[in-house]
């Protein structure tokens, strides 16, 4: 099967900084893997991707490079990203029909150049039609919100690279805030905390697991202490440090404050009729960041609004993109339009 036939049926994709999820029409979500690629440094040939590449992260030798071609929700390495998209879709394709339409969810704050990069990558991988949709719009559709209704809904989608905050009504985004503070920045804050306070160098994977295990936005009922292994920056030898969830919360606080401030700024710009709707309906949290302990409570405390965590927040965006594929005519108004010059 040639690469031209990779898109054998309609496909929806959440091309995320941390994870790529693919929905195939008639089959549902068929792929959910890390957006990580291992390739040969000399030939750029892809050796592994997804979960297999993640296992190699931080353990590769000089001939292999493990990288994430997506940064802050957009393509950072065009060639590797294209190879990743091609390989993931080939893996999830069953090879049935000949209609090759793809819907890709991207951050709402990307530039025209960044949109073009995503579009080109999908076209080079064999797509006949490429349609882009803003992540918060896809997330809203994914959690069952009737986006075409004349009612205001607020979505906060916290991914790996970006936090997308949007007020949606009448199949469009009324106002939005897209900040490059999300899961990756939280991981980085934890890594910097250990460098500064414990002279301990830890990897990205370790920081991610600490965030998931003990990270929080509000004090926990029972604070937790964990053992963290890394490399001593002074002695250069492996070392273990004992840290509490209180310290990790302090390390994450600056990022959480920035997310809350962005939510407040979006609310300040919201027309009063839609503000009343949001007060009634509350705010919906989606994306992996929604799972940070107590984040819903923190936003509730700071805004006095009801805050709900979506069911299965990690797949909300791809489920929404999948619904668009399944009901293409119904959702034709939600696509990001090409800007004409």
Task: Please characterize this protein's 3D structure.
The protein folds into three domains: 3-138 and 317-334, Nucleotidyltransferase, domain 5 (2-Layer Sandwich), CATH 3.30.420.40; 148-181 and 260-313, ATPase, nucleotide binding domain (Nucleotidyltransferase, domain 5); 183-251, Alpha-Beta Complex (Actin, Chain A, domain 4), CATH 3.90.640. The longest helix has 24 residues, at 245-268. The model is unreliable at 1-7 and 95-99 (pLDDT under 50). The protein has helices at 51-56, 78-92, 112-124, 135-142, 183-198, 204-214, 245-268, 272-281, 295-303, 316-326, and strands spanning 11-15, 19-24, 28-34, 37-40, 46-49, 64-67, 70-71, 74-75, 101-106, 129-134, 153-158, 163-169, 172-179, 200-201, 225-232, 238-244, 283-286, 307-309. The relative contact order is 0.15. It is built from ten helices and 18 strands. The strands form five sheets. The chain has a five-stranded mixed β-sheet, with helices on both faces. Strands 13-12-11-17-18 form a five-stranded mixed β-sheet, with helices on both faces. The chain has 341 residues and is an alpha+beta fold. Helix 5 packs across helix 6.
Strand count: 18
**Tertiary shape:** flat
Strand % is 25-35%
How is the largest sheet built, in terms of strand order? 3-2-1-9-10
Point out poorly predicted stretches: 1-7, 95-99
Helix content: 25-40%
How many domains, in number, for the residues?
3
Main pleated sheet: 5 strands, mixed
Residue-averaged pLDDT: 90
Using only C-alpha atoms, the radius of gyration works out to 21 Å
Helix-strand pattern, N to C?
Answer: EEEEEHEEEHEHEHEEEHEHEEHHEHEH
Structural class: alpha+beta
CATH superfamily heading of the largest domain: ATPase, nucleotide binding domain
- Which fold does the CATH topology of the largest domain refer to? Nucleotidyltransferase, domain 5
CATH architecture of the largest domain: 2-Layer Sandwich
Number of helices: 10
């Amino acid at each position: 099967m040639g690469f031209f036939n990779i898109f054998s049926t309609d496909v929806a994709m959440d091309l995320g900084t941390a994870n790529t999820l693919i929905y195939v029409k008639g089959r549902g979500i068929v792929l959910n893997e890390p957006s990580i690629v291992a390739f040969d440094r000399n030939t750029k040939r892809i050796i592994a991707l997804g979960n297999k590449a993640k296992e190699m992260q931080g353990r590769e030798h000089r001939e292999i490079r493990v990288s994430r071609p997506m940064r802050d929700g957009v393509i950072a390495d065009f060639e590797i990203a294209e190879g990743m998209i091609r390989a993931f879709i080939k893996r999830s394709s069953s090879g049935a029909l000949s209609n090759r339409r793809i819907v890709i969810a991207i951050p709402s704050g990307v530039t025209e150049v960044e949109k073009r990069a995503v579009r080109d990558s999908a076209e080079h991988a064999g797509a006949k039609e490429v349609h882009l949709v803003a992540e918060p719009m896809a997330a809203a559709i994914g959690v069952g919100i009737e986006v075409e209704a004349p009612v205001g809904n607020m979505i906060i989608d916290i991914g790996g690279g970006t936090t997308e905050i949007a007020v949606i009504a009448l199949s469009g985004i009324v106002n939005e805030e897209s900040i490059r503070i999300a899961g990756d920045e939280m991981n980085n804050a934890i890594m910097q905390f250990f460098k500064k306070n414990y002279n301990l160098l830890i990897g990205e994977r370790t920081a991610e697991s600490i965030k998931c295990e003990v990270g929080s936005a509000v004090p926990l009922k029972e604070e937790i202490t964990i053992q963290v292994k890394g490399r001593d920056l002074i002695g250069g030898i492996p070392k273990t440090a004992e840290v509490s969830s209180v310290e990790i919360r302090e390390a994450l606080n600056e990022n959480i404050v920035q997310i809350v401030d962005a939510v407040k700024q979006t609310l300040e710009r919201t027309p009063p009729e839609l503000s009343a709707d949001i007060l009634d309906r509350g705010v919906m949290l989606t994306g992996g960041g929604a799972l940070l302990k107590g984040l819903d409570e923190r936003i509730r405390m700071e805004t006095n609004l009801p805050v709900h965590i979506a069911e299965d927040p990690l797949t909300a965006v791809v489920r929404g993109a999948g619904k668009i594929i399944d009901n293409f005519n119904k959702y034709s108004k939600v696509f990001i339009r090409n800007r004409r010059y």
